[in-house]
Design a protein that fits this description.
The structure holds 2 protein chains of 2 kinds. Chain A is an alpha/beta fold. Chain A has 2 domains: about 1-75 and about 150-235, Rossmann fold; about 85-150, no CATH class. Helices cover about 40% and strands about 25% of the residues of chain A. In chain A, the strands form 2 sheets. In chain A, strands 6-7-8-3-9-10 form a 6-stranded mixed sheet, with helices on both faces. In chain A, helix 6 (about 165-180) links the parallel strand 7 and strand 8 (about 185-190). By secondary structure, chain B is mainly alpha-helical. Classes of the chains: A alpha/beta, B mainly alpha.
Chain lengths: ~240, ~525
């Protein structure tokens, strides 16, 4: 679903991501962990096509991101670390805008908006301007917009930040369900307990380099993910 | 603390002069010097020059008639109007809508210090506009009337008082706009409406300026006596420039008193207004049938939505939407009279009336510049168009299309009106319709081009991209420049070609330039946008 090969991205003198390779297969929830500034967001933004990279190759659903960016973007959805949405729009206008861009037929989008907005208890607020939303409401709207076009691959940067416990639980269920239907999820998080319980595979990045990757069992063994992570950070 | 906050705000206003956001590094000294020279030329050379000419025409006559105070009253009044007009919306958006209000309020900084820093910023902006009028006026007065110590000191104090009055008016109006905004649903439209009343009054006086000045000079004694009798305060205001110590002391005291009062009112409500999201009734969502749109139309709708949601954006970048059709109506009423007048003045330049009508339409077209700040306004939401399956070309074309639509449609009406009243051949009349439309297309592409070349993405107050960015300044002044070159060339040598050929050539030039810029946007501009 998503193959990252030898990805390198430099900001001035600093290598934010250094020769990173990952393979995310259909049905996998893939967690990406690392301390602040380790290169997680840079990797995610590169995989989505927001950030141009210096070296490497990114393949999404068999298509090279550099050669077919629009086709790749049609197959994925992205939620950034901070839901900076169009504040001048109402929630429903934003969702319809996203649906229009992805070419979702009117009846299909209405059914999906109804379903997801009800799930996140956001239906009553859809007519409100986004500028009046709380951080959590914006995050819920970003999640709904990501699921709206039924993407194959969902890439999320810290998706649980700002969500209330109920919405967090719901999102975890939706992630599992999405992967059970053959989709894939690649997300970064600092909440190691969530990663440990939710992820099929995990990768740990440090100073732009991949230091450990594999199934959850392979990475943590008999320890907790937190212990492994802290150990690797101390090295 | 105040110093740091003020430095932060001024740095934001002038950031694009020192920092190249595209290259993510500071500009070279040469580039910084170039930008500063450009700014100085516009403020001192163009605006300052204009008001120096006005001062020269008034000062000698009024001072000669012993009415120097009336001269200072007039110039001070213009300075206050220009300064307040230029900064009223800065106060509202800069004081209450700044995106870093929450951050600053959470820091151990007294609320009054935050407010003072914001107001100092408004003061400096207002003072800049007011000084462009009053400084030349003072210098001219010192040359014409003689520069005594009293005149020099009181003159400078007049400048200080005028700039303080600008701040007070801006605060008062900004506060009123803020209070209204908290209670209204369609606040952006209502704010625009209120502002348009001010603008209409401004243009009414602007267009009547020559008649008013002539009338004033002829009846200076009568007006002077009336003002002295009915509005003695205004007389005293004018006396400050003449070097009256008592008038200066009185005005300083009154201004300080009003300032203290306004400060008290504003500081009481600042926290409430700055942290309020409005007390309008919550709109309940009711599911309605929707019609799917293609990506381009969705993006176009998004851009139109952004434009109509911000009074600041509409007022600063879209006045042409109303003024262009208004000019069409004016042409239908007074057009033939204007054409015959122009024909008489430029009798040795046949076709000049048509070319000058076209120039006027160009200038009105330049009042629409919504494409220039459009990329910058994406700000932190830039990830949305960049991560969606839409090409950068489509995004940029939608941005240009908004300006094109909002200019070309009213322009078609105005240009047809111009063609109807112009006493020219059919070919010239047809070109009078075609050329302004082509020019509107060129302006839309030019604005989009500069928008991509000079983006300001890291702003906390939308005034920065809308009003204070380099791209907007170049589009506005560039538009005036294109118009002046177009008219000037005709009056100098172009008339030899005849109006039809001259207008045809420019139609080709602007069409070619618009197409070249469109091609640039599709190729290089798209690449730059994707890399932002």
């Amino acid at each position: 679903m998503l193959i990252i090969e030898h990805l390198t991205k430099t900001y001035g003198e600093k290598k934010a991501v250094d020769d990173l390779s990952l393979h995310i297969r259909p049905g996998e929830i893939f967690g990406f962990i690392g301390h602040n500034g380790a290169g997680k967001s840079t990797t995610l933004k590169s995989a989505v096509g927001i950030l141009a990279f210096d070296e490497g190759r990114i393949t999404i659903c068999g298509k090279n991101l550099a050669d077919e960016p629009l086709s790749c973007k049609r197959d994925l959805a992205y939620i950034p670390d901070n839901p900076d949405l169009y504040e001048f729009m109402s929630g429903i206008k934003y969702l319809n805008f996203i649906a229009d861009v992805f070419g979702i037929p009117a009846d299909v989008r209405q059914e999906r908006i109804r379903r997801y907005a009800d799930l996140f208890e956001l239906t009553g607020d859809l007519a409100q301007p986004i500028s009046a939303y709380s951080h959590g409401m914006k995050q819920k709207l970003a999640v709904i917009s990501a699921w709206l076009h039924d993407p194959k691959l969902i890439i999320m940067d810290e998706p649980f930040v700002g969500l209330d416990p109920k919405a967090s639980h719901l999102l975890k269920e939706m992630m599992r369900e999405h992967c059970d239907r053959g989709g894939a999820i690649f997300f970064s998080t600092h909440v190691l307990e969530v990663a440990e319980k939710l992820c099929d595979k995990v990768a740990i990045i440090k100073q732009g380099r991949l230091v450990k990757v594999g199934t959850m069992e392979e990475v943590k063994g008999d320890d907790s993910l937190e212990e492994v992570f802290l150990e690797l950070e101390a090295e | 603390m105040l110093k740091f906050l003020l430095k932060k705000q001024i740095a934001e206003v002038f950031r694009s002069y020192f920092y190249d956001a595209k290259k993510n590094k500071m500009r070279s000294r040469l580039a910084v010097a170039g930008w500063i020279v450009f700014f100085v030329v516009v403020m001192v050379g163009v605006l300052g020059g204009m008001f120096t000419a006005l001062s020269l025409s008034l000062c000698g006559a009024l001072a000669g008639a012993g009415m120097g105070w009336l001269y200072f009253l007039l110039m001070g009044g213009i300075a206050i109007l220009l300064g307040a007009f230029g900064s009223v919306f800065n106060t509202y958006s800069g004081l209450y809508l700044a995106k870093d209000n929450d951050l600053l309020l959470s820091l151990p900084i007294p609320v009054k210090t935050i407010m003072a820093a914001r107001l100092l910023n408004v003061y400096l902006m207002g003072a800049m506009y007011a000084s462009v009028v009053l400084l030349p006026a003072l210098i001219v007065s010192w040359i014409v009337m003689g520069a005594t110590a009293a005149r020099a000191i009181c003159g400078l104090l007049l400048l200080l008082i005028a700039t303080l009055i600008v701040l007070l008016l801006s605060c008062l109006l900004g506060w009123v706009v803020a209070k209204i905004s908290l209670r209204l649903k369609n606040k952006s439209f209502i704010t625009v409406l209120v502002a348009l009343v001010f603008i209409a009054a401004y243009y009414f006086f602007y267009f009547k300026a020559n008649d008013l000045i002539r009338d004033l000079l002829l009846n200076a004694d009568a007006y002077g006596a009336k003002i002295k009798g009915a509005a003695y305060g205004l007389y005293l205001f004018g006396r400050i420039g003449e070097g009256s110590w008592s008038a200066t002391a009185l005005f300083l005291a009154v201004t300080a008193l009003i300032a203290a009062l306004i400060w008290r009112v504003m500081s009481r409500s600042f926290l409430k207004i700055a942290t309020s999201s409005g007390s309008t009734e919550k709109v309940r969502y009711v599911e309605k049938a929707v019609k799917a749109k293609n990506a381009f139309r969705a993006l176009l709708g998004k851009e139109l939505g952004r434009f109509t949601s911000s009074a600041n954006y509409m007022l600063n970048c879209g006045l042409g939407v109303l003024l262009i059709p208004a000019s069409g109506v004016l042409l239908l009423i007074k057009g033939r009279e204007i054409c015959s007048l122009l024909g008489g003045v430029f009798a040795s330049r046949p076709g000049a009336a048509a070319v000058l009508l076209c120039t006027a339409l160009f200038m009105l077209s330049s009042m629409n510049d919504m494409a220039a700040p459009s990329v910058s306004l994406e700000g932190r939401s830039l990830w949305i168009p960049q991560s969606l399956p839409v090409s950068p070309q489509t995004v940029l074309r939608a941005k240009a299309a908004v300006q094109l639509l909002l200019t070309a449609i009213p322009m078609l009406f105005a240009a047809v009106c111009a063609a109807l009243v112009a006493e020219e051949s059919l070919a010239v009349r047809l070109l009078l319709v075609l050329l302004p439309l082509v020019y509107a297309a060129f302006q839309a592409m030019f604005g989009s081009f500069l928008g991509v070349k000079m983006p300001v993405l890291s702003w906390t107050d939308e005034t920065a991209p809308i009003k204070q960015s380099g791209s907007v300044a170049i589009v506005i002044f560039g538009g005036w420049g294109f118009s002046v070159v177009f008219a000037g060339l005709y009056l100098l040598i172009g008339y030899r070609l005849g109006a039809a050929l001259y207008l045809s050539l420019w139609t080709l030039v602007y069409a070619a330039a618009a197409l070249l810029l469109l091609r640039w946007l599709d190729v290089k501009g798209s690449r730059l946008f994707a890399e932002l």
